[in-house]
Amino acid sequence: MSEFTTISFTVNSRGVARLTLNRPEKHNSLNAQMIAELRSALRQINTDQSIRVVVLSGAGKSFCAGADLAWMKEQITSDRAGKVAHATELALMLKDLNELNKPTIARVNGQAYGGGIGLMAVCDIVIALETAKFAMAETRLGLIPATIGPLVVARIGETATRRVALNACLFDGREAVGLGLVSEAVAEYGLDAAIDKHIDLFLQCAPGAIADTKNWIRVLAHNLDNDHLATSAQRLADRWEDEETKEGLRCFFDHTKPRWQDK
User: Fold this and answer.
1) Long-range own/partner contacts, residues 134-138 (CB < 8 A, 24 or more apart)
2) Nearest-angstrom CA–CA distance, 30 and 64
3) Alpha-carbon distance 146 to 149, whole Å?
4) Is the entire prediction scored with pTM above 0.85?
5) pLDDT digits (tens, 9 = 90+) for 188-220
6) Which of 10, 59, 163, 230 would bridge with 24, disulfide CB 3.0–4.6 Å?
7) What is the distance in angstroms between the CA of the first residue and the CA of the last residue of the chain?
8) pLDDT tens, residue by residue, 67-122
């Protein structure tokens, strides 16, 4: 884990991974190195069976201020192939986070703009400070929220996205709850307590069942016009036959705890 310089990555004895954007002097803005390091960490998390839940946060007073200014300047002078390559890496990182087989909690400890909004949009639960400031500010720069756009629309819908993306308006944590971007907005003293509450809830659930449920939700969300009757029956049968499910049900009827819960 010492291989990272723009992020920090730790895992405690309970299986809680803390993934922290670690460029506080740059308000944790995204550059090519951070994107690559996030992808590497997410690959490790995806294959590490000891990790049960992931908390994504930012060092210092910001969550993520979007794209790094120096990185943006590089895009201006880059050829088209270079621009497409960098945009694709960002999109793939967000895809990796979105499709992670572990539950994710965004601990939004401060401002989030642009790509920071994209990170929030693909986390399962987002806990933010009431006073945190947010904006999809791309149109102010003559850009569009192309990479994060599909993720934000999937999260908050077309109407709410139009509300904040077209005029690049600034909004706070409470407004973000109303939009559907943030799950819960809290005062600063309550941020970690709110995070711990959700960590504890996740740790009471079977990790395999969480992974399968998360995958199934994505399938349903992106294939709404399909008839899922047969597929849903097959998926439920798969879970009934899974050893994790058998243990969970046996423990429920025996009034004991399965192995994934604290004894």
Assistant:
1) 134/164, 134/170, 134/171, 134/172, 134/173, 134/176, 134/181, 135/164, 135/168, 135/169, 135/170, 135/171, 136/161, 136/164, 136/165, 136/168, 137/66, 137/113, 137/168, 138/114, 138/165, 138/168
2) 7
3) 5
4) yes
5) 999 999 999 999 999 999 999 999 999 999 988
6) 59
7) 29
8) 888 888 887 788 888 888 888 899 999 999 999 999 999 999 999 999 999 999 99
